[in-house]
Specification:
Transcription Regulator spoIIAA, 2 domains, 6-stranded mixed β-sheet, 565 residues
Length: 565
């Protein structure tokens, strides 16, 4: 493997100016977001800034997407807080230690998946499940940030816990903080809709708000007990991370969530990269993408100590800023380092309510009800999976919620494959095309049943196939030939082969021949070495027209072909 990525070896010089400008703009525009997501993860604010340096450079070097931007993202931030909150007090040395191990563990796992070429694992979650998870997480994020908007200490890992805590703290709401936070939410929402004609000003508005609000807060001259909570001193020193092994009981509690965060990072990162590649008419390598995401999280271990991922808003800003290649990501990382070195005293006075407002607006944009409406109109099973996943996240928490989503995905898949579509087919008059007799006027042969199976055969759907055959034979007791049309059958497992063998023997005892038509090569290669190949009472036909013609000739009654609807 070359030490330098392909985009460097073949870098178009005409893209240099665009990438330099995009990298600088990306840095400036994601500062509020980076601070906010570090806060969301329960980490010091500067962790978000540091997590935008080395991870961005590492991903640009090892990833495959030309324009995806990697850094702190909402999903991984809220999952970090959800995982570490029950294990250690927020802000404690143990909390920071566990965050380091969480980032390192997820990075190593994603990298190993890339090296093992397991990029296909990111496709195990259906789009409705992913959408439901993101929507549920977004609502959970919004609820978790209301405490900063109200200046209270409400906490919880589920929607019920958060709502109960918010209700209990309701009498203690800090009015000045509430006015500032609610005003910031309204201002950001209005800017998102009212500044669409000026995209750059729309993206700069959160940064302008962060720059202005400290002066407003300082000018209020509130009593010491009524002052609005601010970020506080932002350390510019490179954090001294504790890589010592935590207590075995604590470390074991971290293992499962680490796998979960790695998996969600894989799904989100590859999905985002594929969407951007499709938009730009490019291609990505899923396995190389995992190497990039893994390298970014490993780099984050030494830079900020929080898991990172491919962010929707970051990538959108990167594209809108004119990025053409991953060089923009490298420039962004270097620019963020320059920002930190030049000084960030102004960040000390940023109200926490302003950062929470940014998080709420970002999370609100993650809510995807369109996917639910589309799924409900197209496939109710997918809609139920969406609702189940979102509800699971809200009611049970992130880890359990995604488990519910994975279970629903598998259950939906098994349900669909366990009840395969089977159609009785006949020939369209005057053609060699065969269609469902319930949809078209077709020609069928007397005493012949032609069944098309629109699913691979495995142990989970054998009963459905046998029941459908029994139903059709009961309606046509004079049947002499049964033809299984295998056009859509890509695989026949051992259980299905044994069932077909027993079915052949049973039909033979009843005086009915069993045939196959259009068996795919890989399936036939397996059947050749089974008793079914030698014991079959009928024939293997190359095509459905061949089967129709042969059986029609065997009847010696061409005029007996009947018209059915």
């Amino acid at each position: 493997m070359p030490l330098t990525p392909h985009w460097i070896r073949h870098y178009p010089r005409q893209h240099l100016r665009d990438d330099l400008i995009a990298g600088v703009l990306l840095t400036v525009l994601v500062i509020p977001q980076s601070l906010a997501y570090a806060l969301l993860a329960g980490l010091p604010p500067q962790a978000g800034l540091y997590a935008s340096i080395l991870p961005a450079i590492a991903y640009a070097w090892f990833g495959s997407s030309m324009v995806q931007a990697v850094g702190p993202v909402a999903i991984t931030a809220i999952m970090t807080a959800s995982v570490l909150g029950p294990l250690a007090p927020v802000g404690s040395a143990l909390y920071l230690q566990l965050a380091v191990w969480l980032s390192l563990g997820s990075g190593v796992l994603i990298t190993l998946c890339g090296l093992a070429r397991l990029g296909f694992l990111s496709q195990l979650l259906s789009k409705p499940v992913v959408s439901g998870f993101i929507t549920g997480s977004a609502l959970l994020i919004i609820l978790s940030q209301l405490r900063f908007i109200g200046g209270i200490d409400a906490r919880g890992n589920t929607s019920w816990q958060l709502l109960h805590s918010l209700w209990a703290w309701l009498p203690d709401i800090h009015i000045p903080t509430l006015l500032l936070g609610a005003g910031a939410v309204v201002a950001l929402a209005l800017a998102r809709t009212g500044l669409k004609r000026w995209p750059m000003w729309q993206r700069l508005f959160p940064l302008l708000l962060i720059l202005v609000c400290p002066w407003v807060v300082q000018g209020l001259a509130l009593d010491p007990g009524q002052r609005i909570a601010v970020v506080g001193p932002v350390s510019l020193e490179w954090a001294s991370f504790d890589f010592s092994m935590p207590h075995p009981s604590v470390f074991s509690a971290l293992v499962g969530p680490t796998f979960l965060i790695a998996f969600i990072g894989m799904v989100q990162g590859i999905t985002m990269a594929q969407a951007l590649a499709t938009q730009r008419r490019e291609r990505i390598d899923a396995n190389q993408e995992l190497l990039g995401l893994g390298a970014a999280n490993i780099a984050a271990t030494f830079s900020g100590g929080m898991p990172v991922g491919g962010g929707l808003s970051r990538s959108a800003i990167n594209v809108a800023s004119g990025a053409q290649t991953p060089l923009a990501g490298i420039v962004s990382g270097i620019s963020m380092l320059a920002v930190l070195l030049l000084g960030t005293d102004w960040l000390n006075h940023v109200p926490l309510a302003i950062l929470a407002a940014n998080i709420i607006i970002a999370a609100w944009g993650m809510i995807d009800l369109t996917a639910l409406r589309q799924a409900w109109a197209y496939d109710r099973a997918d809609a139920i999976a969406w609702l189940g996943t979102a509800s699971g996240v809200l009611a049970l928490g992130l880890e359990t919620g995604i488990g519910v989503g994975i279970g629903l995905s598998l259950a939906t898949l098994l349900w669909r494959t366990s009840s395969p579509h089977i159609a009785v087919i006949g020939r369209l008059p005057g053609t060699q095309s065969f269609r469902n007799v319930n949809r078209y006027a077709t020609e069928t042969l007397p005493r012949t049943l032609m069944l098309r199976i629109d699913e691979s055969l495995f142990f989970g759907n054998l009963q459905s196939v046998e029941e459908r055959l029994g139903l059709e034979l009961a309606q046509a007791p004079d049947t002499q030939d049964v033809v299984w049309v295998m056009t859509a059958v890509n695989r026949v497992d051992t259980s299905a082969m044994a069932a077909l063998l027993n079915l052949n023997r049973d039909l033979k005892d009843r005086g009915i021949r069993m045939h196959f038509a259009e068996v795919k090569g890989p399936v036939q290669d397996r059947l050749v070495h089974t008793p079914l190949w030698t014991e079959l009472s009928g024939e293997f036909f190359h095509s459905v027209p061949d089967a129709f013609a042969a059986l029609q000739a065997s009847r010696q009654e061409p005029h007996d072909a009947a018209l059915s609807i």
